[in-house]
Amino acid sequence: MSRKLFKPDFDNARANQGFDLLSQVIRAELINLVKLNLLTLACSLLLVTIPATITAACRVLVLFMRQEKVEVSSEFFRCFKKEFGASSLGGFMFIAILLACGFAETFYIIYFSANFFGILLVLVGCIMLMIIIIATYHFFVLTAIADLKLFTAIKNAWLLALVRLPNNFLYVIIVFLIISAHIAIWPIALVLIVLISLSFILLLLSVNAYENIVNLVFILPEENNGNE
Confidence band (pLDDT; 50, 70, 90) for 146? Predict the structure, then answer.
């Protein structure tokens, strides 16, 4: 079977990456991040729309990173409608895996954490859970910015999750710390959630995913073209 290189064309990507890119987007697009947060919150009220909402938000955030002029609401809903089916199917698959792994981890903590073997199980479960989370948000970003078939997007999401694993873990840990801080200052955190928290967390994860997608190339099966 013939093969091809898949790498999205991001000629307009910012020169800076990582936390420099994060800070630049915040400084340049703070008002738009608030608008995007309100849109994301409103469109997430129905559970069935959550994957498409995340995908649409990631699309807008990547355009911010690329310094492209974007009208937030029109671009958001354009991507929401276009990617609703693929993002919902793949997104709920990842969410189901996350929930299953989360329940298994809770079971390990309750029943097996009293001995050394049980602690190992808990640690392995934590690592697996973090990898699934990383693959999940990479899938949403890929779906938002690359014209890929569903299986190809899922495959690349897992590959991106496993490459540069320490760096990926760092972003997930930061998100966990942000969520923990919100819990600690509840109910004051409600104001932050309404204004900026959702778009900020998605921006943080999108910066990580975008950086990986831009810098890494994967060899994928050629789409069905009749060549062997």
Answer: confident
